[in-house]
Amino acid sequence: MTVRLRYAPSPTGDPHVGNIRSALWAWAFARHEGGVFYLRIEDTDQTRLVPGSIERIEASLRWLGLDWDEGPDVGGPYGPYVQSQRLDGYREATGRLLASDNAYRCFCTPADLEAMREAQRAAKQPPGYDGRCRLIPAAEAEARAAAGESFVVRFAMPREGTTTFTDLLRGEITYENRLLDDFVILKSDGFPTYHLAHAVDDHLMATTHVTRGDEWLPSAPRHVRLFEALGHPVPIYVHTPVILGPDGGKLSKRHGAKSVLEYAEDGYLPDALFNFLSILGWSPDGATEILSRQQVVDAFDIKDLVVHPAVFDTQKLEWMNGVYMRAMAEDELSEVFARELERALPADVVRPLDRALVAAITPLVRERVKLLPEVTALVDFLFASDVAAPPRDQLLGKAYRNRADAAPAAIDAAVAALDALEAWDAAAIEECLRAVAAQTGEKPGDLFMLCRLAVTGKNVTPPLFESMELVGRDASLDRLGRAAEVLRAAAG
Ligand code: GLU
Questions:
Q1: 170 secondary structure, DSSP code
Q2: 11 pocket-lining for ligand 1 (C-beta < 6 Å)
């Protein structure tokens, strides 16, 4: 058997990480088995469509490296892959269900349904359609429909007995039929509901495993009945658990969870997010956490998914992103840094950036950042045409707060020594500044921080001596001199 799995999003906005995790697992299983992963757009709820969603869904999958074998853009043997283009199939199935008395037309108006719900509330009965239109003789219903009366089509659920199906992760589940009402399969606008579209398409498109969020679990017995009434074999169901935020609530924006494309925009590496999501409820051995795409594919078995909800830990994702960043080959990482800097540096910085400078920065910052945007804040001073000296208080810091005169004197000594250096490289700069500290009696750390602030304008930077080497002698000495002026001017 060739496995066929699908990602079947509704184009109602950007895919959320929880939603895309189901896609990732379906993809990984299809690839593990040498099967097919396909994309199907479920746009049957015309009221919820958000323009541009399909493109953003495709972009999200592409960015994460989840390639699809069949889909709206590439076609395939079971197309079209957009449900609004498959209405004939739903009509045909509805016709068969009506003819076999597994479905009936319902003419209840919204007001009728509201009155029904009200009566059920008053009588403390569970809500649900009471089946009244089931009693309308088929010929009469047909005549009313032909006369133009608005109707929906409902599935006639058995009133007694039970429905049992198997979820691959949970085993056999049995529902009492009397608790499942006659649900709508075709809406008055001629579009199917999710229930019918699922039963028709996952059959016609030969899906072997339906992986979907477990909010669909209570609907599964309905789907099983639909498959049976249509004479279709029931696919293997895999209901994936919800993801929780650290506070135990359902994961949401409030927990810092974002859409896939927001993670991309915020500078996460796709391999890191892929890895993170793959193990959010699955593990090859209960321990290993860092897994390449290929390792996930090699080890992945869908039946090993964990049923209880996983907790989304943003810090772990950040950590993982750092791991991936550090593991990248230096030239590759340098390219990534260059793209990020091109994106994030102020508009007045001349593009394209000096690639040799980016290459020189890469080894200096790779251990210091977990997220790409942190790079810019660390190194922007290397690209700025000028760096203003920080205000006096910041320059003095704790070290010089009570001995303000010592700070400009220390800078003067540093400038004189640096000016006399033969070679301008990190090792020489370090040796020189250590000698200045020894001569002047300054603590090396205090002197270095003063120089760092003067040359870079900030407290946190790549290593000082390497930074000064990259800034260059003239600019370094100039900035040191201006910092000394700031200190003196304010003092005077
Ligand atoms: N369109 C449904 C959703 O986005 C898909 C559920 C499924 O995968 O069957 O929730």
A1: T
A2: no
